[in-house]
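Entry: DMT family transporter
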Amino acid sequence: MENNIKRGMLLGLLGIVCFSLTLPATSIAVPYFGATIVGLGRTVIAAIIVSIIFIIKKESLPNKNQVKSLIIVAVGAVLVFPLLTTFAMKSLPVSHGAIELALLPLATAGFAMWRGGERPSKRYWIASVMGAVIVFIYAVYLGLGQLQKGDIALIAAVLVLGLSYAEGGKLSKELGSWQVIAWAILIGAPFFILPVGLSISIDILQAPIEAWVSLFYLAVVSQFLAYVAWYGGMSLGGIARVGQIQYLQPFLMIGFSVLFLGESITWLTIILAIIVVICVVIGKNTPVTK
């Protein structure tokens, strides 16, 4: 039992580290490949890998009810979140995005309560409002008095992915941890082939090696393997216990933005990240009622 918890925590940490590199990789790849290839092309590449795995393992098809939930996961994790974050990274620094994505655990908890027929307590709503207000003020401050389109995109991405995470966590109990994102990828990929194909031009061959590495990182790791580690970690170590590792994500994102993108980080960013995470911890761990 103790070994499973340790393995679960390690897998969960690995998943969060991988997720934390998503925004930096997106920021590097977008200028060379464009939003469509980066946002949707990653799923097409991931689908090839998933198809090979499914053929080897001879996975059985999900039932009708599972497909409905998989569509929700696919819309959030495979379509909307990659596109919105890709759009946002055209104009926003990664450290800025890290503050807004810090609300993701809180959004996930809220949707999980809703899907489970539970009612969040007042403490949950107070923490949610406090975290949202801080993020809003920070975004307006950096936007010189106005909310930028990239901020709106990231906030929408948090809400959509929160619903997708909650639905995926619920479905993983019956379908299997990694199978959820794998089937979601296969459901979404066929719809992306045409727009991705139309977006490919000869110019992408001039992209530097770091852009290609970033694109394939997004496809292979961010879109698939990170989910395998994350869901696998929660299944071994417990959702509540392993889920706490998610609080490290905004700080890892900020660190990676400095390391790989050379962004300068202010004390205001660090302090607000800490405050937002505290709000998330309070809100996510609050009791609920049926």
